[in-house]
């Protein structure tokens, strides 16, 4: 489409031509641009060659536009104004006036309690922005999805963020276990690493996918491996499985509290995980291509604002109902 544009045309020449056609005075334009008169005269000569028209002609003691010059000054004015608006668009982003759709990949163990207050903030501040939340899959190349623009943000809890992506740490939280209330492990305040490894576990991530699991990834760093007796495709299945089996589920403490809080009374029990697990980090990731995007910057700020309410390094984690009430 643009292959036939004269390569000698640049923004500086177009800007100088626009000023010449509006001011109609070579000396004045030279002062405005801080250039010499011969330099401005050379730009006028070049513009005349490019547009195949004199553009400015003398009429008595002054210069006037040719008919072609009248057309060109209007086109250049609109083009330069449009370019300026495009460059300044990030600073002018108004979430309340935008109509768009964005896609966010969010890990389930945080999405369950992070997405509701996030959805509330988005609906209040930007009702015209539609957001598709989905759980990331190991079968999908998220770097490629972000790079192509098919995904805007990723909220992940892998052992370490991808180095090729922009990222920020949203929060740090403890790791906890959930078991059936009648499970003998429920009577322990904290599981030792030995007891933990002796138990059978349920996980939404197969044992072969340690890279995507902050639990199995940490155990791999220690040269250890737990026994995953059952893996499931949906986090939503785990509370029901725990209520019917002797399996152990390990997750971020806020999500452990969430599923215990929402389970039928006296069904599930939270138990502290082995100290060797340290803390779990939640990351926000995006691609360089969207770094300066007004919409992406705004959504990142909303995610960070909501995540700060959960950050255990700042204050105690509130209950899910408290967070929803604060939205």
From TrEMBL:
Residues spanning the signal sequence: none
PROSITE patterns, alphabetized: HTH_LYSR (PS50931)
Highest taxon of the lineage: Bacteria
Pfam families linked to this entry: HTH_1, LysR_substrate
Keyword Transcription: yes
Every HTH lysR-type domain range: 9-66
This protein's UniProt keywords: Activator, DNA-binding, Nodulation, Transcription, Transcription regulation
Keyword check for Transcription regulation: yes
Entry similarity comment: Belongs to the LysR transcriptional regulatory family.
Protein name: LysR family transcriptional regulator
